[in-house]
Description:
44% of the residues lie in helices and 14% in strands. The protein is of the alpha/beta class.
Amino acid sequence: MKSYNSEELTTAQALSLVDQISLVGIPEIHFTGGEPIMRKDIIELMKYSSKKGLKTVLETNGTLIDKEVAKQVKSSGVAYVKVSVDGPLQIFEKIRGENTYNKTIKGITNLVEINQAVEIDTDLSVLNKDKISDIIDLANKLSVNSFRIRLVLPIGNDTKNKSFLLSPKEIVEVYKRIQEKKIRYRDTITIYDDLILNESIERLATKSFTVDPYGYIRPYPFSSIKVGNIKNIELSKILEILPSTLPKIKVDVKRIQEYFDRIHNYLYKLK
């Protein structure tokens, strides 16, 4: 596995961050990326987080999880592993890159075989809206513990991102198919159907935060706003000023709120 960039948090700094997260009363930590398995110390960090009593989650693309890495992940005490699967092979590799699908499926299989809890996550977009039933079928076939679907949201000025957005009608149609699968697989897999709940970055920014590989605190994963760096400021101090960033992200908050309002208005008309 590759070493991490020298400008990224060192092992000592990352362990200190886990200590600080525990001290301020945050109950869980998600190790994500990029690809977190590329950090040579990721198992050590997850073990430490688990021992501190934090609910520890690994979010990975699964491509680097061979049988030995799967055992190491299991030994770290993580609550569960989240793996992104956005469609069957052709769609998956259009999103994730060539020669990734089989590696991801093998990674999931390696984890399931040693009884490590696994959740498959899918980002719903125009690319895979007609394949959601197939993805749930695959999740059940792979014997993972749970399946969760997330909406691609209208964040920032990315035109490509906006082109992936679904109409309220399309979202409701997908939601109905999820309900059918939820009934069919109720005894074998947990399917989270919070697709049309009213989310907002404002809620996320006040209840969670993101630490990038270099130690900067951001109010949410895709934000360009850097609130401070844990290399030179204590986490507790940064969290005190984090709410002040909300006015700066009001454009994203407004876009997302309007998006969910359109969905709920459509649902109301159906009643």
